[in-house]
Every structure is written in C-alpha cells, then in structure tokens.
C-alpha cells in the first residue's frame, strides 16, 4: 500500500502498464495528474496548442506503434475540443485511452455553474467510445486503467474514456499498487481465436472455389496478419484487395496484391467472376464498397474480431469471430491438407488488373500520380506517409504503394480535415527513427497548423507538404460539378514561408512536382520541422 493522491495514482497506473507518451494540455481541473508527471520521467508528455490535436497526435502515435495513445484533458471544453479526434479514432478503430477530469463529485451533472461544467459529460463521449466510466474513488484508478487497456488489447481497438472528478484526483489515501510480477495487462492479453468448426466450413467453401478473392481491412494491420494473408493467397492463388485502412497489411509490390483500387470495369469483372471471397478485418463500409455496390460473392467467408460487423452490410456464408492473424493461421492450417497440388498462377491476371487502373487515373489527374511517385521514391519502405482530406491524399489512398504495416495513415470514415499534421507529429514521437511526411491542402493545414509550435518545442522533424490551391479545392470541384458555381471555397491563405519563419520552422516554396524530390531530400537532411509549399498544378 502506498499513500497517493488520485493524480499520482493515474500516472503510476499508466507507468505500470508500460505507457511511454501522453498528449494533452494542463488545466486547473487536472493539475494533480500533471504534477505527478514531474516525478515520472519514463512517461513523456507532449503539450499541444489545441486539444483536438492531442487526440490526433495520440491517434498517429497509436497507428505508427500499435500501442495505445493516451490523452489527458480537462472537463468540459478540453474534452469537447478533443472530441473530433476521438471520433476519428473510433471510426478507424484506433486505440486511445482518454482520461478527462470532471468537476467535484457532489457537483457533477448538477448544473450549478461550476467552471468547465458539461452536462452529462459521459453521455457526450459515449457515441465515440467503447467504454466510458466515472471513477468514484482513488482506490479504483489502478483497476480502471488496467481494465481499460485490457479491453482495448483483447478486442476491437477503439477509444475508452475514464472520467475522474477533481476531488478524487486531489484525495490522498492508501492505495494498493500491484506488484510488477508480470507483463502489463495491455501486453499480456489474449485476443480471441476462431471456432474450429467454422474454420473447417470456411476451408471447405474456399477450397471448392475456382476463382477465390481476398479482401484485407484494417483489422489485418492491427493483428499483424500479413504473413498469414500471403500464405493463404499463395496457396489458393487468390488476389488480395485492400481497403483504405488495410493498406500496409501486405506489401503492395507482391504479385498477388491488387491494392485499394477504384471500382473500375476490370475490378468489377474480377468480382463478378469470383466464386468466393475471404474478407478479413473489414466491415465492408459504404466508402470501401462504393455505396455497397460491390457484387460480393454469395459464398462469403468473413473473419472479424467484432461480431457486430459480420453480416452487417453483406451476408456471410461463414462468419468467424476472431483476431485476424489467429483466424487466418487456423484457416491456413486447415487448407493445407485440402490443396494437394499447386494451383494455376493468377499473377498475370492480377498484373493486368493493376495495369488497367493506372490509365484511368492518369487521364483524370496525372499530377497526383507523378507527385506520389516522387514521394514513394524519396521514402524508404519503413518511412511514414500521413494524409489529410485533400486531392493528393485521395489518390494516395488508391495508388500510393505501401510496403510495410503502419506506414500509411489517412482519416477514413469520419474524414476529418486537419488530421494529417498533428497525427504525423504523433507518429514521429512513436517512431523517432523514421522519416515522416504529412500531406495536406492549404485549407486543411490551417485547421491544425498551429501545432508547428509543438513540432518546434519537441524538435519533431516532420516534413509538411502543403499543396496550395488557395481554397477548399475538393469542395469547389463538387460545387462546380453539381451546380456550375461555387460559394466560400476560395480562401485567403497566409504566406506559409513567413508563417514558418514566425514559428521557427524551416520552409521553402517550390514551383512544381519537378522540384519536389530535391526539396524532400533537403528537408530530410535538415532533420527538423520543415514545410514544403507546392502550388496545385492546376493553379500554375
């Protein structure tokens, strides 16, 4: 037993679970936590300039490392400011532990005018968390943190929120601190494996298929299931499609990997002739399936850790609730004895489909393809590209070849502008040995560009590529396409070189894609925060 304040218990509980970094802003309602951080050098804190960026940074850290991103917030405005980033993490199944304060217990939810009071704060956060708890006593903090991280580690990784009133953070009491006699709960948990009978049914279905196809989603990245995916693909000679969040699950230079392709004629033909589909770690979202227009084969084997996703959007012939890697490993073992001899190679067919997709995009946006090639050539396979909601990033989601897991990030589903730069900072915190590039448009960058100050304070050498079209270019295109006119999408944008100078950031403005490769090389050599501003070619 140790005599601790609630704030000290929070920090000790995080340290006991192996947490290395936390993101947030100190405020009057969480000072007890921050004071305890001073005595815990093994946990690095990164202060941001807006709480939305704290949740984005934690998300980027989680995606780059596979570890839980931890966010520290005050009650009320601190939490609501961070809510957008929490929602993005929920949409993309990214593991966050959000610890917020609450007004004193006797005043919580009473609407008596306390500073930063938010009515039904737990209710506000509930839609974008998988677990949401108010801690009533300092003694409950250790088990609550352990249970939260165990929940994330054992199931679908999504945000969890723990709310702690100020009186609980301030109270000093005897607290039982678990002995470090084993690994933390976050690393010692066992993810669920598959039902053997369902695995046998799935193997029987797939082995009878003449033209099987595979679809890998974000769950395959989380579970590090690339080796198992490729083993089954080679055994069945089944091409692998990737969802946006599935990019990186397997190397996109493998001859059977199609990537995350647009639904064009070649892909439509492939899906229509496929007589079985093995889908793993994906929910068949409206974005992935082009509004559920994909002709998914009736013989569908769907493996997912979340039982709610199986059959939600497409009926599964065989549904298997399992961690992606464990499910695929069991399936491969079952298939091995049922495939006595090598199947005819389909690598030429896969190559033809990939080749057919390139002219389509080259006809619509050749500059994006050229820029992506420059970026891919400049980055090593293990370097990280982080995206925003902008034209170049939309093309990257389809055509940027990702060669390693956790090296490509984009705000899917929820689709938040401003995600890229703070998420890239978080990725750099988690992977200091890797080069990190952030792509954003000028409009999206200004959502969170103030975090240049954070980058300088911690000397995080993220390279921010700002593609400047002086407006919300994607929205303008949609307005012009639908209505033939536009409103409030042409923006006054700052001089980014002067903005960078004001923050103490290195920067340069280039004339076009021909200068991008050398600019990236200069930025990497600097190894400090760097901005490259490039006009969108259509604006030249």
Largest sheet descriptor: 6 strands, parallel
Mean pLDDT: 93
CATH superfamily name of the largest domain? Thiamin diphosphate (ThDP)-binding fold, Pyr/PP domains
> Proportion of β residues?
15-25%
Helix content: 40-55%
Arrangement of strands in the largest sheet: 3-2-4-5-7-6
Number of strands: 20
Number of helices: 22
CATH architecture of the largest domain: 3-Layer(aba) Sandwich
> Low-confidence parts, pLDDT < 50 over ≥5 residues?
none
Domain module count = 3
Instruction: Please give the CATH class of the largest domain.
Output: Alpha Beta
Shape: globular
Calculate the terminal CA-CA distance, rounded to whole Å.
68 Å
Secondary-structure-based class equals: alpha/beta
**CATH fold-type name of the largest domain:** Rossmann fold
Radius of gyration: 24 Å
Describe this protein with a few key phrases.
alpha/beta; 540 residues; Rossmann fold; 6-stranded parallel sheet; 3 domains
Descriptive account of the structure:
There is one protein chain. The protein has 540 residues and is α/β, with parallel strands linked by helices. The protein is 41% helix and 17% strand. It has 22 helices and 20 strands. The strands form four sheets. A six-stranded parallel β-sheet has the order 3-2-4-5-7-6, sandwiched between helices. The chain has a six-stranded parallel β-sheet with strand order 11-10-9-12-13-14. A six-stranded parallel β-sheet has the order 16-15-17-18-20-19, sandwiched between helices. β19 (506-509), α22 and β20 form a beta-alpha-beta unit. α1 packs parallel to α6 (141-154), α3 (51-65) packs across α17 (420-430) and α9 crosses α13 (324-336). The termini are far apart. 51% of the residues are buried. The mean pLDDT is 93.
């Amino acid at each position: 037993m140790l005599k601790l304040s609630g704030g000290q218990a929070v920090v000790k509980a995080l340290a006991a679970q192996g947490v290395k970094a936390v993101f947030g802003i100190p405020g009057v309602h969480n000072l007890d936590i921050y004071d305890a951080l001073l005595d815990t050098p093994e946990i690095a804190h990164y202060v941001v300039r807006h709480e939305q960026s704290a949740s984005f940074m934690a998300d980027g850290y989680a995606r780059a490392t596979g570890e839980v991103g931890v966010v520290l917030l005050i009650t009320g405005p601190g939490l609501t400011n961070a809510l957008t980033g929490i929602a993005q993490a929920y949409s993309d199944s990214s593991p966050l532990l959000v610890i917020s304060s609450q007004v004193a217990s006797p005043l919580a939810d009473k609407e008596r005018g306390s500073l930063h009071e938010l009515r039904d704060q737990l209710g506000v956060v509930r839609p974008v968390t998988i677990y949401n708890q108010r801690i009533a006593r300092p003694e409950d903090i250790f088990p609550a943190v352990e249970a939260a991280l165990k929940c994330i580690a054992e199931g679908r990784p999504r945000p969890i929120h723990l709310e702690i009133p100020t009186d609980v953070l301030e109270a000093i009491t005897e607290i039982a601190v678990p002995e470090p006699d084993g690994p933390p709960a976050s690393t010692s948990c066992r993810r669920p494996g598959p039902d053997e009978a369902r695995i046998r049914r799935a193997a029987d279905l797939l082995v009878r298929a003449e033209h099987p196809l595979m679809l890998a989603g974000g769950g395959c990245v989380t579970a590090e299931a690339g080796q198992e995916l490729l083993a089954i693909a080679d055994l069945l000679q089944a091409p692998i499609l990737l969802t946006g969040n599935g990019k990186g699950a397997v190397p996109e230079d493998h001859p059977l990997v199609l990537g995350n392709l647009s639904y064009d004629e070649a892909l439509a033909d492939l899906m229509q002739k496929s007589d079985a589909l093995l889908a793993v770690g994906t929910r068949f979202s409206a974005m992935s399936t082009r509004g559920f227009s994909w002709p998914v084969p009736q013989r569908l084997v769907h493996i997912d850790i979340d039982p709610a996703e199986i059959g939600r959007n497409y009926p599964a012939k065989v549904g298997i609730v399992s961690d992606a890697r464990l499910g695929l490993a069991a399936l491969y073992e079952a298939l091995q004895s049922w495939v006595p001899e090598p199947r005819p190679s389909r690598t030429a067919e896969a190559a033809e489909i990939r080749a057919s997709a390139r002219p389509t995009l080259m006809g619509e946006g050749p500059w994006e393809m050229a820029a992506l090639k420059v970026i891919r050539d400049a980055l090593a396979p293990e370097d990280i590209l982080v995206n925003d909601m902008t034209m170049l990033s939309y093309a990257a989601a389809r055509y940027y070849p990702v060669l390693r897991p956790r090296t490509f990030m984009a705000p899917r589903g929820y689709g938040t502008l401003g995600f890229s730069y703070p998420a890239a900072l978080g990725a750099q915190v988690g992977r200091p040995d890797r080069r990190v590039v952030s792509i954003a448009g000028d409009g999206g960058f200004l959502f969170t560009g103030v975090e240049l100050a954070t980058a300088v304070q911690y000397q995080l050498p993220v390279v921010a590529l700002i593609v400047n079209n002086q407006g919300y270019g994607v929205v303008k295109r949609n307005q012009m396409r639908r209505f033939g006119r536009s409103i409030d999408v042409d923006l006054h944008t700052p001089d980014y070189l002067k903005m960078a100078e004001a923050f103490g950031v290195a920067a340069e403005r280039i004339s076009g894609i021909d200068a991008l490769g050398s600019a990236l090389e200069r930025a990497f050599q600097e190894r400090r925060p760097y901005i490259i501003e490039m006009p969108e070619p259509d604006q030249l």
